Structure formats: structure tokens, C-alpha cells
Amino acid sequence: MVLLIFLTAKVLIELWLTSLNLGEGKKRRGEIPEAFKEVIQREDYEKSIDYMGAKARLGMISEILDGVIMVVLALGGLAWIFAQFSSVLPVGLGWDALLILCVMLVLSLPGLPLEWWGQFRLEEKFGFNKSTVGLWVSDKFKGLILMIVLGWPPLLGLLWVFESFPESWWIWGWGLFFGFQLVMMVLYPMVILPLFNKLEPLEEGELKKSLMDLADRAGFAAQTIQVIDGSKRSTHSNAYFTGFGKFRRIVLYDTLIEHLKPRELMAVLAHEIGHYKKGHVPQMLGVSAVISLGGFWFINWLITERWVVELFGFDVFGDGRVDCLPALLLFMIFSGVFIFWLGPIMNFWSRKNEFEADAFAKDAMEESQSLIGALRGLHAKNLSNLVPHPAYSFFHYSHPTLLEREGALNSDAEKSHS
Questions:
Q1: Could you report the per-residue pLDDT of 120-145, keeping only the tens digit for each?
Q2: 139, 264, 286, 390 - which has most CB atoms within 10 Å?
Q3: Over the range 300-339, which residues count as b (16 or more CB within 10 Å of their CB) and which as e?
Q4: Active site positions, annotated
Q5: pTM
């Protein structure tokens, strides 16, 4: 079966790339590369390699476990789970939507032990974990409620579209899905994120004034800059841009403010503004729209070619349930096996956007050292891998490596002075 071939290839490629990355870290362990001697202390450099290795080994276990589960599901396991819920849930659009959610919930359970281990053993060992078991359980419970509250209505709408427009449902369904995606981009930072984290406007003072002045100079009309209490779960630092139009906002982790100097924070803000000014968000939406449209077309093909669905152990329906349910589940669970191979292309595009945002930040700050200092600080505090294997970073890194970003920023600086 084509799926099993792609699945096996995916697992083997992932294990091979991870092994290359582990080998690269072991080879580079003895001496800090010249380019990084000003970036990180020897002790932290060794610790970053250990951290990478621990995450890589846990990732390999997770990859093998996922692969085994996917094989079991492909050989009839998914159809069996579906049949169990189908036998106890009533027939009807609302119940059919709930059936899909129940199957997805069951399939998320095997990954919980490894997720727990990663949080309370691995992250704890390297000093990053700030969460508690109670908070972790609370997050999972909230996630379950959100999955039902936010997942059930669009699924119900999709099933209604399928029943109402059997010939062209996939086009209307894609429109419904894409519209929901846009709504969620607006609602997530305002409604969903506050359920897990506390967000507050950056307090008044010299830092806020500097950041707001920079936003004005860069042409980004920001009403406020928000700070998220990321420190309640982890000491990792980050910043991100979310929303669009008048709903856009920039969020800074409290750990980021703690770790970086004011000028470095300004450079990080300028980088995030660069994503907005360069149109990266509309580009992302456009790519997502094209990929999702192709996905809906493929689901329609699965529904039309009933023999494909039957290969996975699903019986032809005669109990009144919506015919598209098996095809929807197959796509939701196995599409990642094929999308995986698009990773290098998407990462290449993402890295290009990061270089553009870096260049924008350099121009906005009228110098590059503040951003370089911020990137060095973030890599050091997060124990980021400074020496990834080229093949691994090519396949997995959505951001350029620190050395690549510094090289581009310094190159641009040299050009501007020549």
C-alpha cells in the first residue's frame, strides 16, 4: 500500500536525520566553534548539546511509537475504533460530528506519557520546566473542552454542507473551513489564549515608550504591546506576531523582557513588525488556502473512490450516517505522512521570510548589533542547538541558524558601509 511505503520512508528518514544531528553534536562537543565563543560559555555550550541529545532521543522514541500506531490504524485499527463509537452513538449530523471528535480524542491518548515525560523529566532536568502536574492536567482538560466547543460546530457545518451540496460540497466546505480559520486568528489571542496564560499590556515606562516609538517609526500602528506570563510554565523565551488588520498584536514573553536589554527588545519588536510590513501573514494565509483546497479535493476523491476507504476496513454505510466520515478521518490522521515531504519547501520559504524580517529590523534600528545580541541571548538562554547537522536543519528548521542570521546581518551591514 502506498501509504505504508510513505509512512515507513518517513520514519526511516526522521530517524536517519536525528542520528546525523546527534552525531554532529557529539563531533562538535569538544570545542566551542570560533564563531560562537562570544555567544555562549563553555558550560552552557556543553549543556545545549546535552539538551539537544535528550530531546532527539525522546523524539526518536515518539517517532517509532507514532509509526507503529499509524500502521495499526492503517491495517484496520482506525475502522475498528470508528465502529466502536458508531455502535453506541445515535445517528444524526450532530452525533456524527461528535463521533469524529471522540475518535481523535482516543488517538491523542498514547502520546500523553511521552509528553508528560518531556515536560516533567526532560525540561525539568535542564531547568526549563516551571509547570506543575496540576497545571498540566488543567491545560489538558481545558484543551479537551476547547476541542469540543470549537471543533464540533465547524464539523457539524461541514457535514451539513456535504449533505446539502453532494456534488460541490468540497468547495463550499473549503470556504467554511477557511472562514473559520480567519475567525480563529482573531479570536485566539483575545479569547482562547487568556484561558491558559495571563496577558497584560506592557507597563508604562521608558521601555514601553521606546517600543511604541519604534513601532510608529516603522509604520506599525500598535495600540498596545502585550506581555504573556510564559514563565509560569517554562523559562524559554519568545515573541510572536498574531492576528491581522486592526486585530494584529505583538506579544512578548515575560522571560524575554527579563533576559534581553532594552535595545535588544526593540530589535525583536522590529523583527516582528517586519513580518507584518513584508506581508508574510497574507502570504501564509494564501499558501494555507491553496493547500487546504487541495486537501478538500482529495477528501472528495476518497469519497468517490469507495474502494480506497474499504481498503482500510470501513464498511459501506447503510445505517444513515454521513458517507464522508471515513474519508474525513483518513485524511485528518494520515495526511501528515504526505505533507511531511513538503517540509523542506515550506521551511525554505519560512527562512526567507525570517531573513527579510531581520533585514527590516536592521534598517529600523539603523544598526545590526542589537538584533544580533538579542539572537545570541535567546539562543544561549533557550539552549538552542548552535551546531545542527546541515541535512537536519534543511529538513526541519523553519528559522535560519544563528550563524546564518548573523552572517546575513553582518553582510548587509558591510554592504551599507561600502
A1: 999 999 988 988 999 999 999 999 99
A2: 264
A3: bebbeeeebbebbbbeeeeeebbebbbbbbbbebbeebee
A4: 272, 358
A5: 0.88
